[in-house]
Amino acid sequence: WDKLSIPADLDGTWYGVIFRSKRRPFVHNIGLYEADRLAHEEAVSSGGLMMYWYGTPDALGSNLATCVWTSREAAKVASALPLHKKAASKSSKAYETFELARYRLVARDG
């Protein structure tokens, strides 16, 4: 967060999705990263995706990924696209646990 710079005059509301996960040990070759990359490209093309950040799993496999969208509707449209569904279908093989959290992000001028 210390690298995040927000202009003081920014004013708006956005939709955020946080994906917390813990990778299964020794699961490396199921094509998850490629599926995620393709789903990201698909989301960018669909419009509405403002930011995507994916961390590096720690020694225990825990990780955090974040998407910020122009709206909840834009996120819902992208999550229904075929490449997102394909990436999501790999979740049960790749992760011991995962959870989604959704947030309304609000910035007010000043």
Automatic annotation (TrEMBL):
Superkingdom to which the source organism belongs: Eukaryota
PANTHER family: UPF0643 PROTEIN PB2B2.08 (PTHR36986:SF1)
Protein name, UniProt field: Uncharacterized protein
Organism: Ceraceosorus guamensis
Lineage: Eukaryota, Fungi, Dikarya, Basidiomycota, Ustilaginomycotina
